[in-house]
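Before drawing any conclusions, I looked closely at one protein, both as residues and as discrete backbone shape codes, quoted below without any editing:
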Amino acid sequence: MMTSVDTDLMRVLADPLRLRVVTLLAKETLCSTHLIEETGAKQTNLSNHLRVLREAGVVETEPCGRYTYYKLRPDVIAQLAGQFADLAESARDAAENKRACP
């Protein structure tokens, strides 16, 4: 049973703008123009966040003419969810364990 959570991925998703982008991409594949419209972020700021998400393996790109589309990699999110599920199960199993103070 795994009881640790991928902290690098947690840091990536902890940023509010990146989490918003991931939430949007969970619903549909979007280009950066769509993401700028939806989030209100500046293009350079959004590009930096998309780079972080790409490098973390959370999103993948699909070139389409002069645009780049972004789509979520659901397997990465599912893996993180599984790690949290394992952590919750471990906590339930250990609910009655209490270490005595010295």
